[in-house]
Amino acid sequence: MKEIKCTIIQDILPLYIDGVVSQDTKEMVDQHLQHCEKCQKEYGTMKRELYIPAENKAPIIQKINKKWRKKKIIISFASVFATAIILLGAYLCIFYYERVIPYSKNLFKIEMQNDNQLVSHYYGKSYATFHGTYPSPIVIDGEKKNVSFIFYTETIADSPSRSLINYEKNLNEQDYIWKFDESEKIDAVYYVDYDVEKIVARKDSWDSVLERAVLIWEK
Ligand SMILES: [Zn+2]
């Protein structure tokens, strides 16, 4: 067999050390190394340089795995949390978020009963809350009138706990009765969606509320 040049052997050495050479190549290198001191030396040096002990490699992989696991845990926690928030939001939206019932002639009727008691009837299925202002003087067409602004709210669905929480919302009793002293004062009742907080914050005013209000009862 023709002697193989050392340079060729040394070219193959890295692959040989990695163990990725064919059996024939391996045998060829083995044979050469047996009698060539120069290549033996080279082999020794290369092996030290190329060979990374397993225990040195391991921490890197473990670290990556740990990081991944941590990330996975955070992701799954986050998704559980997000789901919980969405469900809670949906629940609040369905049972507690109150929206204003738009005015409709057929739904609301204000009546002064015989005993001088002003009553608001609601003919819808059910409502969540009756909102009404204390009769307050407002100048309308140059005339000072005690006005009460009212509106009703509803929720998307009736919560089973709602009747327990709110004793004034009896589904069979759809009337709102003003207190006697208030009844006496009221000159007019307007239906309008208002937000006292906005008025306090000066983002809205009673004048502008009056502008969009619907007169539903007058003395
Ligand atoms: Zn050699």
How large is the count of helical segments?
8
Helix content: 40-55%
**Mean pLDDT across every amino acid position:** 81
Alpha-beta content class: alpha+beta
Biggest sheet details: 6 strands, mixed
Distance between the termini: 125 Å
Give every kind of bound small molecule, once each.
Answer: zinc ion
- Total number of strands: 9
Radius of gyration over alpha carbons? Answer: 43 Å
Give the domain tally.
Answer: 3
Q: Percent of residues in beta strands? A: 15-25%
* Poorly predicted ranges: 161-172
Shape: rod-shaped
Order of helices and strands: HHHHEEEEEEHEHEHHE
Your description of this structure?
The chain contains eight helices and nine strands. With 219 residues, it is an alpha+beta fold. It folds into three domains: 6-50, no CATH class; 57-97; 101-218, no CATH class. Strands 1, 4, 5, 6, 8 and 9 form a six-stranded mixed β-sheet that branches. It has a three-stranded antiparallel β-sheet with strand order 2-3-7. A hairpin with a 3-residue loop joins β2 and β3 (117-122). It is rod-shaped and about 125 Å long. The model is unreliable at 161-172 (pLDDT under 50).
Provide the fold topology.
Blueprint: H1 6-18, H2 23-35, H3 37-50, H4 54-96, E1 99-100, E2 108-113, E3 117-122, E4 129-132, E5 136-140, E6 143-154, H5 162-165, E7 175-177, H6 180-185, E8 188-191, H7 196-200, H8 206-212, E9 214-218
Parallel strand pairs: 6-8
Antiparallel strand pairs: 1-6, 2-3, 3-7, 4-6, 5-6, 8-9
Keywords:
binds zinc ion; 219 residues; alpha+beta; 3-stranded antiparallel sheet; 3 domains; 48% helix
